[in-house]
Amino acid sequence: MTAPAVPHQPVAPRTGARPAGRRRSVLVVGLVAGAAALVLCALVSVAVGAREVPLAHAWDALTAYTPGDIEHEAVRSRIPRTVLGLLVGAALGLAGALMQGVTRNPLADPGILGVNAGASVLVVLGIVVLGITSPTQYVWFAFAGAAMASVAVYAVASLGRGGATPVKLALAGACITAALTSLITAMLITSTDSLDTFRFWQVGAVSGRSMETVATVAPYLAVGAVVALASGRVLNALSLGDDVARGLGQHVGRSRALAAVGIVLLAGGSTAAAGPVAFVGLTVPHVARAVTGPDYRWILPYSAVLGAGLVVVSDILGRVVARPGQLQVGIVTAVLGAPVFIALVRRRKLAEL
Fold first, then answer.
1. Which sequence ranges are marked TM in the entry (predicted)?
2. Buried b (16+ CB within 10 A) or exposed e, 150-168
3. Do residues 261 and 132 touch, judged by C-beta distance below 8 A?
4. Do the beta carbons of residue 150 and residue 260 sit within 8 Å?
């Protein structure tokens, strides 16, 4: 006698984390949507200013330029600041994510490795001693200062047992930043003219820059971006702790040194071109992490897209709210970034990395 057939009972799908393939597809779609939004922001950026240009005419100025047309000339004059805003925002977003991953410090930003202070001290030296006044001349001084300060911080943190640990990097960065800031103050108080020149660079701005400035820093930012985007797996291993990373086959010291090179290129190049732009490197990686989760292979590209968007939108707002003048982008990013950062802290999104 055969047993009666038991109807097949479908297995209830597991609730919880969505399948990895579906989540990856969602993240890819989000990244593509973010890139499309960046294109729209760039178009708005070249259309908004003292002379308003309709978006259709702005597009014509980019695709079918007519020499002598006033609207087309206005759009073309805004291209350098828009391109620089995209590059600086993406670079600072990537640099912030790299810093937070390498140091496992949720408060890391371009100031923690002395990048801003190093760039500032050589800019001041160039202004006081050599009398430089052009943003194109600032670039090389700022870049060299950022690189030297970052190397000094890493060298100091590497002394003693354990090498450049996250805590030692943070402490060394804070000490060297304090020392360089004191030196900057000492040089500036001796010259009022130098102080007036320096403060326009220090506030952080993408206006008044030419395509020559963009072309000067773009190669360094491109190399830094490649280093950063290739560091996703390394940062994932480092986030588990040095011992676990070594167990997974990572050379911790070499990995941190390579990431430090990327940080110097990204943060140094962006600071050299636009000055110290606040809160981008600090806030953007946390927003990206809230969207993507803890995987740095996604945090890094999302940080680049969100950082570029934040700087360009801040530049647009600076031109809109202070007509016929403008607010520099460093002021607007601080105003926008601070509330977002406070909200993230209150919602406990700033877990220890």
1. 26-50, 79-99, 111-132, 138-157, 169-189, 217-236, 257-279, 299-317, 329-346
2. bbbbbebbbeeeebbbbeb
3. no
4. yes
Residues in Cβ contact with 74 at an 8 Å cutoff, skipping those fewer than 6 apart: 49, 51, 53
Q: What are 314's two structure tokens?
A: 């801040």
First-to-last C-alpha distance (Å) of the chain = 64
CA pair distance 334, 314, nearest whole angstrom: 9
> Does residue 280 contact residue 93 with C-beta atoms inside 8 Å?
yes
> 122 vs 37, 147, 217, CA distance in Å?
37, 11, 17
- In three-state form (DSSP H/G/I as H, E/B as E, the rest C), the secondary structure along the chain is CCCCCCCCCCCCCCCCCCCHHHHHHHHHHHHHHHHHHHHHHHHHHHHCCCCCCCHHHHHHHHHCCCCCCHHHHHHHHCHHHHHHHHHHHHHHHHHHHHHHHHHCCCCCCCCCCCHHHHHHHHHHHHHHHHCCCCHHHHHHHHHHHHHHHHHHHHHHHHCCCCCCCHHHHHHHHHHHHHHHHHHHHHHHCCCHHHHHHHHHHHCCCCCCCCHHHHHHHHHHHHHHHHHHHCCHHHHHHHCCCHHHHHHCCCCHHHHHHHHHHHHHHHHHHHHHHHCCCCCHHHHHHHHHHHHHCCCHHHHHHHHHHHHHHHHHHHHHHHHHHCCCCCCCHHHHHHHHHHHHHHHHHHCCCCCCC
Specify the CATH class of 76-346 in words: mainly alpha
Answer whether residue 207 shows pLDDT above 90.
no
What pTM does this model have? 0.84
Judge whether 46 and 61 are in contact, CB under 8 Å: yes
pLDDT (tens digit per residue) in 324-341: 778 888 889 988 887 877
As a whole number of angstroms, the distance between CA 238 and CA 255 comes to: 9
Residue 50 has pLDDT above 80, yes or no: no
Q: Which two tokens stand for residue 136?
A: 């194109």
* Cα–Cα distance for residue pair 81/86, rounded to 1 Å: 9
pLDDT digits (tens, 9 = 90+) for 248-303: 777 777 877 788 888 888 988 888 888 888 889 888 999 999 899 889 999 999 99
